[in-house]
Amino acid sequence: MSDPLADRVDAVTVVGAGTMGHGIAQTFATAGYDVTILDIDNDVLATALEKINESLTKLGENPDTILNRIETTTSDEEAYGDADLVVEAVPEDIELKENIFGTIDELAPDRAILATNTSTLPITEIASATDRPGDVVGMHFSNPVQLMEIVEVIRGEETRDDVFEAAQEISEEIGKIPVLVEKDIPGFLINRINLRFWLEGVRQVEWGIQDEKTIDAALRRIGLPMGPFEVLDFSGIDVATMAARSMRDRGVDLHVPDLLEEKTEAEDHGMKTGAGFYTYPKPGEYSRVDIPRERRYDFDPKDLLAPAVNEAAWLLANDVTTKAEIDKAMQIGMNWPRGLLEMADEYGIDRLVDRLETLRERSGWEEYEPHPRLREMVSNDELGRKTGTGFYEWSYEQMEFNTVQYERREYIAWITLNRPEQLNALDEPSWEGLNDALECAAADDKVRATILRGSGRAFCAGDDIAEIQSWESTEDAAEMVEEILGPTVQTLRDHPKPVIAAVDGVANGGGCELVLLSDLAVASADSDFALPEAKIGALPPIGLTYGRMSLGKKSIMELAMTGEQLTATEAESMGIVNYAVDDGQVEDIARELARSTSASGPKSVAEMKDLWSNMEDDLLEGWFGDAMDRLVERTQSEEAEEGLAAFLEKRNPDWQR
């Protein structure tokens, strides 16, 4: 049995001594291969060796040992005559590449594997310049080659299986992780997804919807090391423009933004020219862009993620690659915190489809039409983590506690007040259900954070007024307060995991008080907050006591005495919520906060919460008990009788002074 092709490769020829070429040569030489670099210019070859020496020194390698494995030449015969593997890395010009491969075909041994580092041009078209297209394979390295772990291995239409497998094995031998692309399509995998992602960001700026720094801040927020404009500047705006044009010209439904063309035409290519979307100290000198963190919630990342996921769905439907390869490419190749499809399952497939439809309506472009695979997933309720199935299978549990819905999506418990017709007003079953759901989350070791929200158009409109009016005596009121409401408040305060309120709509009375009891809170811009109990002749016991831990006296008294509605922005400035954000981001940011808190030690988090709760007890427990007693008395007073009746009859109360 013959040895695998990869085991027969000792001598490697790299064609082209530019940035990619000398990076590829360095990588092979570092891995122990004998390397020849071919270029038409001796000065370029000399510069390549200098760059390799500098790079090796920075990386702590022994330059002499590795450089001894590298030879340079301008002779095709010397370069190709004894090569086991040829890697072409010249500019993205199809005629140039075809000419080079024609020469390689004439001079390289029959045993040689012929690889191209093209980023967008068809492998099959390049291979057609040879009489051995089965020996030709794509090996697309990422820049800087010495540091980037990924190599796309692309199968041309006639690439032999053993050649494709050898390219994978060789990639691993040189310390890279191969991403397998089984079909030869324009842009392959990484560029197709990246360009959908990057170009959408450019359009947002071009159309005056957002600015570069806000978009980059939002993408850093979700864990990406750089936003799209930082990446474009770093990798080269001209390179991205060339790739986008190439894909478009080869039939991909893709609009190249005018802004990108203008930057390219003006030679504002990014870091390498000293200016792109941002400016740099001098051409070729990188400096980290100062991105204002405070803008991170001012843009919704789904606008960029949705087109990328749509492209991924096309790749899967056309058997170009697999889910694992897509997520590997983005997580390892682009250093994303998680793979694209894993992130899609987090955001929800239905919400990404909605975003695509919005983008299509805005632009009128078919490129935003949601792929049938995504529509089918929505139709089948395969929405991601929130249903347990999406692109992947997820740990998921669901149960009902009276009028409260409980879900565990992986490590997050989602507790939903579920009386949408009553704006999630808190009646006795709701308080009991909330208590049971919180206890369920507390007892589950898989749960690391708990999110509290409401269904429909409200978070929670407060206590159920009709139920309060039905109490016939002080004893009825006391029983509810002492046996139901009070214990639930204590359960919420004692909850050992972070509690995050996700407010999307009205948060009045008891709803506002639940937000005050939560550890963290995020609200949509359309939400409003109030403590209007005095308007029905009652008082807010939680707001007046435990609310003191979030608000000062004047803020509490204004809320409690006037009962006026606060906007989400006002609630943020007062400290009722951490962040007021666009409506479509509340769920996402609550989940992000849950993820961030779960990165901390669970016992440390529990200790923090216990310490805080004990401090509150020392300061406020007695006063809270007093406030609850006063609430019981107030609900049975003549003033409350008039206030409750006026509320239900939708009239102003006739207070007796």
User: Would you tell me the structural class of the helices and strands?
Assistant: alpha/beta
Strand proportion: 5-15%
Contiguous runs where pLDDT drops below 50 for at least 5 residues: none
Rg on CA atoms, Å: 31 Å
CATH architecture of the largest domain: Alpha-Beta Complex
Give an account of the 3D structure.
With 657 residues, this protein is of the alpha/beta class. It has 3 domains: 5-181, NAD(P)-binding Rossmann-like Domain (Rossmann fold, 3-Layer(aba) Sandwich); 190-377, Orthogonal Bundle (N-(1-d-carboxylethyl)-l-norvaline Dehydrogenase, domain 2), CATH 1.10.1040.50; 396-584 and 602-641, 2-enoyl-CoA Hydratase, Chain A, domain 1 (Alpha-Beta Complex). Helix content is 48%, strand content 13%. It contains 27 helices and 19 strands. The strands form 3 sheets. It has an 8-stranded mixed beta sheet with strand order 3-2-1-4-5-6-7-8, with helices on both faces. Strands 9-10-11-12-14-16-19 form a 7-stranded mixed beta sheet, with helices on both faces. Strand 6 and strand 7 (150-154) form a beta hairpin. Helix 13 (302-317) crosses helix 15 (340-347), helix 13 packs across helix 16 (349-363) and helix 18 packs parallel to helix 20 (474-494). The chain is elongated, with a radius of gyration of 31 Å. The relative contact order is 0.06. The mean pLDDT is 95.
